[in-house]
Design a protein that fits this description.
- By secondary structure, the chain is mainly alpha-helical.
- The chain has 2 domains: about 60 residues; about 60 residues, no CATH class.
- The longest helix has 30 residues.
- It is built from 5 helices and no strands.
- Keywords: Membrane, Transmembrane, Transmembrane helix.
Length: about 120
């Protein structure tokens, strides 16, 4: 029941996020600079908060072992993301192209997913 509920909550928030990104990006292209443009650029953050809340609720529904696996996976993803992004930041000073901050979350999410799979296998 918990997993099904989580996927429903997270999935709806993800769909809302995608819709907000698409719509706000479309409208932002034609807007003049100003407070309205800044506010519109931040609209996708609202469903991101809903996604974060869905993750937190799911973590609270997990048993102790599942929480431990997630804690270790999140810790590893934090450390790996810091190492990767800082390393690339130093490489930018050596002339590599600058990357958008939008690359940080996919790196963290990928490492989190891989570390979760590794943690589940370890405790099997």
């Amino acid at each position: 029941m918990g997993t099904k509920r989580y996927f429903r909550e997270f999935g709806l928030a993800l769909l809302a996020y995608i819709a907000c990104v698409l719509l706000s990006s479309h409208w932002l292209a034609d807007m003049n600079p100003g407070p309205g443009k800044i506010a519109l650029a931040l609209v996708p953050v609202i469903p991101m908060v809903a996604m974060a809340l869905a993750v937190m609720r799911q973590l609270r529904r997990m048993d102790e072992l599942a929480r431990r696996i997630q804690l270790e996976a999140l810790g590893l993803s934090f450390v790996c993301t810091a190492l990767i992004t800082f390393s690339y930041g130093f490489l930018e000073t050596a002339g590599l192209p600058r990357l958008s901050m939008f690359y940080v979350w996919p790196v963290m999410g990928l490492v989190w997913a891989l570390a979760t799979v590794a943690g589940v296998r370890r405790y099997r």
